[in-house]
Amino acid sequence: MNVEIALLPDEILDKDISNHLVVIIDILRASSTIVTALSEGANSVIPVYSIEKAIKVSEDLCSEQVLLCGERNGLKLPGFYLGNSPLEYIGKHIKSKIIILSTTNGTKALQLTRKAAKIIIGCFLNIGAVVSYCQNYNKDILMVCAGDRGNISLEDTVCAGMMKYLIENRNNGKTPPLFFNDDGQIAYFLYRKFKDDDDLIKVLETSVWGKKLKEKGFAKDLVFCAQKNLYKTIPVLENDCLVVADKF
Q1: Is the dihedral of CA 194, 200, 233, 240 positive or negative?
Q2: Angle value at C-alpha 134, between 170 and 12, nearest 5 degrees
Q3: Which of 57, 123, 196, 208 has its C-alpha lying 20 to 30 A from 239's C-alpha?
Q4: Average pLDDT of the chain?
Q5: Cα(234)–Cα(226) distance, rounded to whole angstroms?
Q6: Which residues 6+ apart lie within 8 Å of 201 measured at CB?
Q7: Sheet containing 141-145: which strands, arranged edge to edge?
Q8: CB burial class (10 A; 0-12, 13-18, 19+) of residue 181?
Q9: CATH class as words, domain 2-238
Q10: Nearest 10 degrees: CA dihedral of 201, 202, 205, 209?
Q11: What is the mean pLDDT of residues 214-242?
């Protein structure tokens, strides 16, 4: 098994990922929101980058079970049911719903990796489950950080570094995977700097996007998204929908 990390989705535009398991990481906040929604009982999440397409998909499905959700620049889109705060996706209103989600960074990263053999969603909230899933995958793995509108994101990079560390150190006697690109080393060194639980909150609060979310009134999101292993749910992309993955 080879494991690579891409600190930005654009890094893989010319890469053949048809045989890879891709892990999309967008801590603030698409990954955290998707994991929360499915863990709280949503039927599925349909990721759509274009706002216009998201509205059209909602109209085509035309069901009371469909919730049109999304954000741009951190704020809920006008006329949409929910934004992109994971805290909005906790409660009975999410049970059995089909969520159409359009976000600034996370859904774009999903769009750019559609040619992968398999795509799952990872964050701090489900990091232990993601690591176990990766360890049982027999082919190459690529962790893709969504970043922040074309810029490297501190929180995504630290999470990828934590995944790298855990995969290497919880191999249950198996041959350790080979990490061979510099992005992986950068992510690992950053994780070592912020590896304590309290420091994970510090990562989110000091990152550029974390500061902006705090200014917009989403300080509670940072605390929530910094939690490790709150859920065991692994969202996997199947037929353009994110659903709960079967365990190995």
Answers
A1: negative
A2: 125
A3: 123
A4: 93
A5: 17
A6: 222, 223, 226
A7: 75-76, 66-72, 98-102, 44-47, 241-244, 235-238, 118-122, 21-25, 141-145, 2-6, 178-179
A8: middle
A9: alpha beta
A10: -90
A11: 97
Amino acid at 243: V
**Predicted pLDDT of residue 166:** 92
Instruction: For residue 29, say if its preceding peptide bond is cis, omega within 30 degrees of 0.
Output: yes
- What is the token pair recorded at 65? 């079970």
CA distances from 44 to 97, 159, 173, 248 (A): 7, 24, 35, 20
Write out the E strands in 49-136: 66-72, 75-76, 98-102, 118-122
**Domains of the chain by residue range:** 2-238
pTM listed for this prediction: 0.95
Segment holding 110, helix H or strand E: helix 106-112
Structure token pair of residue 181: 């690109």
SS3 breakdown of the chain: % helix, strand, coil, rounded to 5? 40, 20, 40
pLDDT class of 199 with cuts at 50, 70, 90: confident
